[in-house]
Amino acid sequence: MEINILYLLTILVTGVIFVLGGFFVSRLVGPNNPNPVKREPYECGEIPFGEGWTRFNVGYYIFALLFLIFEVEVVFFFPWAVVLREIGVLGLIEGLIFLFVLFFGLIFAWRKGYLVWH
Amino acid sequence: MSNIPADTSIEPDFEDYYVNMGPQHPSTHGVLRLIVKLAGETVLGVTPHIGFVHRGIEKMAEALTAQQFFPLTSRLDYLSAHMNNWAWAMAIEKAAGIEVPERAEYIRIIMSELSRISSHQLWWGVFGMDLGAFTPFLYGFRDRERVNDIFEKTCGVRLTMNYICAGGVREDVDRDFEKDVREFTDYFEPMIDEYDRLLSGNIIIQERTKGVGVLDPETAKQYGCTGPTLRAGGVDYDVRKNRPYGLYPRMDFKTAVATEGDSWARYVVRLEEMRQSLKIIRQALDQIPAEGPVRAKTPMNIKIPDGHYLSRVEAARGEFALYLVGNGKILPQRVKLRSPGFSNLSALPETVKGWRIADLVTIMSTFDLVMPDIDR
Amino acid sequence: MESYIYRTDKLILDLTEWLTEATGSAFAAEVVKMSIAAAVLSAFVGLLAMILIYIERKVAGHMQQRVGPMRVGPHGILQTVADSIKLVAKEGLTPKNADAFIFNLAPLLVFASSFACLSFIPFSPGMTIVSFNVGLLFILGIASVGVLGILAGGWASNNKWSVLGAMRSGAQIISYELSATLALLAIVPFFGTLDFQEIVLSQQKGWWIWRAPGVGLLGFLIYTIASTAECNRTPFDIAEGESELTGGFHTEYSAMKFAMFFLAEFINIFIVSAISATVFFGGWMPFHIEGLDTLNRVFDLLPPIVWFFGKVACLVFVVMWFRWTFPRLRVDQLMHFEWKYLMPLSLINLALAAIAVSAGLYFFN
Amino acid sequence: MTNEKPPENQSTPGTNADISGKPIPTESGSKELRPKLKEIFGADAAFAPESDPPRITIKPESLRETATRLRESGFDYLLLLTAVDYPDEGKIQIVYAITNFNEADELTLTVDLDRNAPEIDTVSDIWRTADWHEREVFDLFAVRFRNHPDLRRILLDDNWEGYPLRKDYVDNVHNVVKRHG
């Protein structure tokens, strides 16, 4: 088990090295002479006005929140799903109740109109 | 608020912000700049800025003789080059009182309808690409090649044909012309059904276009929109029917009209127009006299008599009108080119208001803008 | 004795044994194995991306009645090599108002997470770099780090198009991740493990796509749709949406920084297809029909690794097929489709799967 | 010219082509056009009846009134709006080509303006298509349109010097002029 974590770490580090190596080679091989015009953000060939960092419509965050709720619940399902065959009918019913609550939550959000993109 | 000056920096308030769409943007199809006011994804307003390919063709016209100006008319809406040539030829013929031989009139019709088809083929492909489906683009181009080949055989040119001239057409068609065109019509008619299968039947296309960007007929009329953009709203207006020119009165065809005025309607109208064009081409091929002159005798330098002359044709994008003011010399006093795209584009801000940025692309695509035509 | 190509698990064991003998310690052997794994995986990634990009262009070409790349090398097979050389030789720019650190971190996050995901994939018997007993959960977790990279990259660019693309991808990918997770979760009760090799082994009698009654097929469909969305592929490529957002979150990226996003996209296609192949189509397990021993033996002639890559290739083709057929959805339609159709459907699918398992309702027991 | 094929749809509204299919360059649009125009313009307008389309010269002051009356009597389509420069006569002539979507009647209004300070009322609230057309005329001829909602240059740069479609415009950089006859 521990050796597996070591493996994972190795792979992760390899991935990082792969990227950094790529950047390094690119820096070595490719030209590097930036100038203000080149570094201008792309806005279809016009000089951009204002910043890109603007406040955003709340529509995005509603979905982010919904995701957070559901994803956490879904993670709880994993151990249940793994042992479902061993825990029998009682475990099934308990899981289904949880699932129903989740489903109800979705219906609730739906009826409240949160699933409409603004 | 919708008309903000071009180069002052804008202090965005909390939710709205401005973004330049174009001149270098994949969906503006040419160099059109739209200043889009957004709140999140929703378009609050659009200010078009045009003129990036303004070449001063109207000014050039004042220094060119009638014959010399023909090539420039091909370079307006390069996809309706024949129709634009025709408009100029018609104005000159009207001014100088030139009779056009019958065979030439038929050739003009066939060429115009072919170029309408080729224009719509290109539009159809690009429309698919604007909506994220790249494959239709190449299907459209594949079929367009055939039309271009026909043009190339007769005119020697594939795009800016410069074929229709004062008093007829430049020279007689290629000897394979009739065979080629008939082959093309037989090939292309079932191909429109394939277009339907590939794109029109797709549920995503329908979701993306139905009800999106409704341009109601009253607004469209107010803005002087013409062509499929207007007819999609249920206004049965087609220059070929309402102000017939050439031999169009002899042709039996229907103007393609839809009722909804949305992007889907504009799409359907264009597909139907291709079918109607095929029908016209077939009739013209049946009726065309086998022999005969194709060009009336015209002087090298045509004197344009004093007066005002207006000629109107139905180009692929709508009504192309040409206003010629003569002063008795060979150089015109003034030539005004009324391009369909110019007026169609002016209705865009009204149409896109409240739609999302992806719909802006759809609507713009179904308006079918060609910038050299608008900027002249 | 069967050859190593069929018994890769034996190959690994023998290799470990030999290495332990040669180096004198079990740990040193593991270190050497780690180095081999890292080197092989790096080479594999480079090769995989190039092959996939080449295939994509060829598939697209033939679907569009053209031939695709033809000039560089026979049938253009060296085209992607030429492209990568070009990308390396380009100038990498950082826009002037951008958050430079996050801007450069983003491609790293995206690529490294995809790269790490590869280590869980069971290519062949015994051939998994990291065999966790919670592999499935882990891979889902690591994969979602990639979203963070896209979001961070788009946001750090300080370009309006990129920010729009980042916001879109943020909203989209997290939503579809739910469905993808739920679709896989629905199959978990059937095999009762999260270890990929065990998942494969549980399909000796038949692949879960048809062994699990109905829910397998439904789960596969949901997973295919949701994972296409997770990979930012058409018809769900709104984060890039080049006809709307001129490139979306990677508008400002150039040279190697862009190449990393591009590479990660293709690795992700491979990963989701590999997961799909493993969970629904038996991974490296050959196709067997119980009772028809002759036929089964013919199928056994193909080594497991060929089976695995064959299945993955088919699924990758499906994803490419989508891309060159469908137009793009609009962002609100995309979200509605997820939350109003896919989500309820995946929840129901999970409930049905749970009931089916408890009732012992599955084929080929 | 042979004439064996009769036209198949003779009754198209607005058709003024004879059987041979040759459009007759005479009167435009429906038969009721002339009486209608008489009704609208009365006798005070300079009416050029021989021209095609019918051309009426009106005074700048009566433009808005005329335009409103035209719009009310069904001329719902401003085909184009442009200007013609006559430096010798010291005038700029604004041309309105007006038609309608149903019968396709055509007529043109012309208004003569002083070349040195051309100014006229806008018609962009009557036909909205005039909005951009007036901007174009402003851009190229320096004609000011009173009460125009947004009179900016449309085709040229905001800081462009001069008005190119005026006859006396000289620009040796952008404009290569080759004279004939």
Summarize the structure.
The complex is a heterotetramer of chains A (about 120), B (about 375), C (about 375) and D (about 180). By secondary structure, chain B is α+β, with helices and mostly antiparallel strands.
Mean pLDDT of chain A: 81
Q: State the distance separating the first and last CA atoms of chain D.
A: 35 Å
CATH architecture of chain A: Up-down Bundle
> What is the string of helix and strand elements of chain A?
HHH
Report on the structure:
The complex is a heterotetramer of chains A (118), B (376), C (365) and D (181). Chain A has three helices and no strands. Chain A is mainly α. Chain C is mostly helical. In chain C, 68% of the residues lie in helices and 0% in strands. Chain C has 15 helices and no strands. In chain C, helix 5 runs antiparallel to helix 6 and helix 6 (160-185) runs parallel beside helix 15 (331-358). Chain D is built from three helices and seven strands. Chain D has helices at residues 33-41, 63-72, 130-141, and strands spanning 46-48, 55-58, 77-86, 91-99, 106-114, 119-121, 144-146. In chain D, the strands form two sheets. Chain D has a five-stranded mixed β-sheet with strand order 1-2-5-4-3, with helices on one face. In chain D, strands 6-7 form a two-stranded parallel ribbon. In chain D, strand 6, helix 3 (130-141) and strand 7 (144-146) form a beta-alpha-beta unit. Chain D is an alpha/beta fold and 181 residues long. Helices cover 17% and strands 23% of the residues of chain D. Chains in contact: A-B, A-C, B-C, B-D. Chains A and C meet through helix 1, helix 2 and helix 3 of A and helix 2, helix 4, helix 6, helix 12 and helix 15 of C.
